[in-house]
């Protein structure tokens, strides 16, 4: 535990200290990547509790991923010690779930209600739409898309003591709207509310916040409009932009000093976002000055295989000693390298779409480099995870730790998938799906100790990236969405091509807003890097059923060529007219 007292804010710079020690009332912190938003948030909470006599149980900190919540909780433990346990740190989903648990009867549920599994959602949709048993799975899926969110669907779920994952925030919103006295109780309980990544709030989450926090309440919202990347899930950056009109006498603090990235990386990122920045007068000043800092590398690859090879070769060079391993000795622990080079956990490979991961995973695995691959998708959306979770829940007779049970049940399930004729309940499930599920659920199980209920709850509301273990000595393979909020000494951003960044599906025209959001995603990717950043693009790629010529991403042309060290192939061609129009 750190010393509490005047020293508490010593590790913040002047502006961060202003932001952390401000009096109550609505407050917006507008700050670019790596400026210490998350650091300021934790110190703010610690300062309130340790210096101003705020009770930890009156504090509610909301983040977007379970992983981020976990990190916040650890940092608060470090600053405040055991009293930090009384602070509620939660994702929106988990918060909604907690409110529902407290008020189950009021929404027609028993205290033991569960979140519906995919099979249950489909069964309920079929029932509500009057589909008979003979209906095909496609038909049923279409019915689900039609009825999800309707009153009839909700009623049928409730009759089975279930809620849909998508209702975890909307149900509490309805409950608190129809019961103002209940809303008052929550307002009295959480007098101090903090939201990280506020730029990604969606209308339902926003409605919940409004119910939990009066217009002049102590809402501390932190974010960066230029990192708003979730509009495809309904997030609206406009909530951030109109904070001052939503909340009474809202104050605003800006943080502009970037502590994360080297000066060349920061300059590259700033140029990349400049054409569509949502922050007037945006500034990001490097706190780090190192004249030796390496330039950002732009690698042009003839093919996807060559791009993957470039990643492997470069990792080999960076993680000194790896090249001496013997391939048949299997995986290597890079931390054991004698020359103190980088370790695998310092490295991330980022990409726009999950489909791009396969070539990279293949190449890294062949080279004996351990990986952990995570997307931003929900855990339950993976078929292997749903099946494994079901088996773990019913395998109560097994002894041993929860993590051991996950592994054991996984082995049995994988073996069964190899003999589908014996069991058709997990039809279509492949052993590798199960292995992936074990890989995802083991860190979760370890975190939950032996608390099966907590494990199931986290699993039901979690995303794949929640299962990222920052301590594991493996290279992280992440979608750009999953990488938000994280930082790594070395970052590869692969597939910087028109059609992937910005992502374009065949026949679909992109609006200016779509392109701006893709550019923000590019910006998020660039700003994850601390010391070394490698961008790459391939000139040919298999997409939409055939091999295509790929042009470099138009976003690259916003970057001063002098900032980039070009490697491999010819310099990227000038963007064609069509791409220029997209800018
Ligand atoms: P993002 O927008 O990507 O979420 P952020 O603004 O939340 O970024 P943090 O993750 O809080 O940034 O901080 C980025 C890095 O800078 C961290 O490694 C953090 O420890 C470091 N840092 C922040 N503030 C300071 C400071 N005053 N002195 C030294 N290091 C700092
Ligand atoms: Mg952050």
Description:
The protein has about 575 residues and is α/β, with parallel strands linked by helices. About 40% of the residues lie in helices and about 15% in strands. Strands 13-14-12-15-16-11-19 form a seven-stranded parallel sheet. The N terminus and C terminus are likely disordered. Bound molecules: adenosine-5'-triphosphate and magnesium ion.
Q: Could you give a short description of this structure?
A:
This protein is 39% helix and 15% strand. The protein contains 21 helices and 19 strands.
Give the helix/strand layout:
Blueprint: H1 14-21, E1 27-31, H2 37-51, E2 59-63, H3 66-80, E3 88-91, H4 92-102, E4 114-115, H5 118-128, H6 137-147, H7 151-159, E5 162-163, H8 170-178, H9 180-189, E6 192-195, H10 203-212, E7 218-223, H11 238-241, H12 243-246, E8 251-255, E9 257-258, H13 263-273, E10 285-286, E11 296-301, H14 304-318, E12 347-351, H15 357-366, E13 371-374, H16 383-394, H17 402-417, H18 431-447, H19 452-461, E14 475-479, E15 488-493, H20 512-526, E16 529-538, E17 540-543, E18 546-549, E19 564-567, H21 577-582
Parallel strand pairs: 1-7, 1-8, 2-3, 2-6, 4-5, 6-7, 9-10, 11-16, 11-19, 12-14, 12-15, 13-14, 15-16
Antiparallel strand pairs: 17-18
The chain binds adenosine-5'-triphosphate and magnesium ion.
Magnesium ion (MG) binds next to α2.
